[in-house]
Task: structure prediction
Amino acid sequence: MIKLSHPRSGSHSKLSAMRPRDDHLEIRSAGPDDAVLIAPLLAQLGYTWEPAAIAARFAGLTSAGDTVLLALRGGAAIGLATLHATPVLHRPTSVGRVTSLVVADGARGQGVGRALMAEAERILTARGCGLIEVTSNRTRTDAHAFYEKLGYVATSFRFAKTIKRR
Result:
């Protein structure tokens, strides 16, 4: 059974129990104290942040209602998912978004991503989301196949523009 627990500094919601492939997988809400565990996972997505910068971002994320999920096995961080719910004018319910998902190289194919996505769906559904989106870089074709296996379909293109701060 996957052990789902609360973050070290308290929790906003009770996490559900799931039946995974590995009895030693734990999924819990992460907090600023977990920044040193999160940094190497974000680096696998191409984002290089110092743990202090990650920790500093948590206050803004949690005040906006975002959730960071951390998957651990034997105390080692092997997966991460970040979640955001957005009320929108054009839909009758909020839209949930998995803004990042990463499973460590050595832990892929072991049900970690599936367990993180199941918990993300549970949390976002509980927050009233009627649609859940996940974004993925166009080059990550293995990730695309994974999302399709979970029932996600490609629905649109996403365009981005980097704005330089003055």
User: Anything to note?
Assistant: The chain is about 30% helix and 25% strand.
